[in-house]
């Protein structure tokens, strides 16, 4: 996936995102100026701007989109707006990538890759109630449909560095949610909305991003407040109780300890939140 030279426009323009559209590979920390001092200089990250990468992915699927419209018997000249794109985000450590013998720069031995897959594209024709799916990824877990967005030399358990590098990516994603992409597909300008689903994170990564204690924690679940003891006694009555906002509030309690509690009491109050969550991972 190398972003090509596709002209596109966002309505309204994306907030907090550079306006030049010929962006290729950028330094992973760009857009995060306020915190660069807190990050070790040897942090190496390279990434695409999120919207440029999404445009490139859609242009790659141009033939599939046109084919889908034809198969559904939709007149492509009437389908210029109402396109919805569902994107699956994935993020995972890539293990040890150290160079065993070379004279290159000294880098951390671990790498993390953040990537996305276009899962489906649907369109709602002007006079129709229901949206019609015109593209569905047949192999959503395949290496071939998964597009790298950001590559980083960092250990996935380094919460601070991950925050600094993926922070701008999250800011761009947030801006994209509030806007529509205007892009030429099949010779006509069409308008796309995006929805993001974070289903490609393993548990370790979710814990990292949501500021939870690591795998040895007594709080076993990344979705609810069960302890190991409670979960072993009762495997049924679980409800999803955690939200990103709630974890942020708990982190503030953890940081400020407003009730002047002992470490143990405080830990019981925040139920395993130990760092500031920085990324909302929405399951489907």
Number of domains as seen in the coordinates:
2
Query: What's the SSE pattern?
Result: EEEHHEEEEHEEHHHH
| Principal-axis shape | globular
Rounded to an integer in angstroms, the radius of gyration calculated over CA atoms is 21 Å
User: What is the number of strand segments?
Assistant: 9
How far apart the termini lie comes to 25 Å
Mean pLDDT: 84
Beta-strand content: 25-35%
Features of the shown structure:
284 residues, alpha+beta, 9-stranded mixed β-sheet, 7 helices, 25% strand, ubiquitin protein ligase activity, RAG1, zinc ion binding
Q: What's this entry about, in short?
A:
With 284 residues, the protein is of the alpha+beta class. It is built from 7 helices and 9 strands; from the N terminus they run E-E-E-H-H-E-E-E-E-H-E-E-H-H-H-H. Helices cover 26% and strands 25% of the residues.
What would your notes on this structure say?
- The chain has 2 domains: 193 residues, no CATH class; 62 residues, no CATH class.
- It is 26% helix and 25% strand.
- The mean pLDDT is 84.
- Strands 1, 2, 3, 4, 5, 6, 7, 8 and 9 form a 9-stranded mixed beta sheet that branches.
- The two termini are 25 Å apart.
- The protein is α+β, with helices and mostly antiparallel strands and 284 residues long.
- A hairpin with a 2-residue loop joins β8 and β9.
Any chance you could write out the topology, listing elements then pairs?
Layout: E1 8-11, E2 25-27, E3 44-48, H1 50-60, H2 62-71, E4 83-96, E5 110-123, E6 132-136, E7 147-153, H3 159-177, E8 180-185, E9 188-201, H4 203-209, H5 228-233, H6 244-256, H7 263-270
């Amino acid at each position: 996936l190398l972003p090509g030279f596709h002209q596109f426009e966002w309505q309204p323009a994306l907030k907090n995102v550079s306006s030049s559209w010929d962006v290729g590979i950028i330094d992973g920390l760009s857009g995060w100026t306020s915190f660069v001092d807190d990050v070790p200089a040897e942090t190496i990250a390279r990434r695409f701007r999120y919207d440029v990468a999404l445009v490139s992915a859609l242009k790659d699927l141009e033939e599939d989109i046109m084919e889908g419209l034809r198969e559904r018997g939709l007149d492509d000249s009437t389908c210029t707006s109402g396109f919805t794109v569902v994107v699956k985000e994935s993020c995972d450590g890539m293990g040890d990538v150290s160079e065993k013998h070379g004279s290159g720069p000294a880098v951390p031995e671990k790498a993390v890759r953040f990537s996305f897959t276009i899962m489906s594209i649907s369109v709602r024709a002007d006079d129709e109630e229901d949206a019609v799916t015109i593209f569905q990824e047949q192999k959503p877990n395949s290496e071939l449909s998964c597009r790298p967005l950001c590559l980083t030399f960092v250990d996935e358990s380094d919460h601070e560095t991950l925050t600094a590098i993926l922070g701008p990516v999250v800011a761009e994603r947030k801006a994209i949610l509030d806007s529509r992409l205007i892009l030429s597909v099949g010779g006509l300008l069409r308008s796309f909305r995006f929805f993001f689903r974070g289903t490609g994170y393993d548990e370790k990564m979710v814990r990292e991003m949501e500021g939870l204690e690591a795998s040895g924690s007594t709080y076993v679940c990344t979705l609810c407040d069960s302890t190991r003891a409670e979960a072993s006694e009762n495997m049924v009555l679980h409800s999803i109780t955690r939200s990103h906002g709630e974890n942020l509030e708990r982190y503030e309690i953890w940081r400020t300890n407003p009730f002047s509690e002992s470490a143990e009491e405080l830990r019981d109050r925040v139920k395993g939140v130990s760092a500031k969550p920085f990324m909302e991972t929405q399951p489907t």
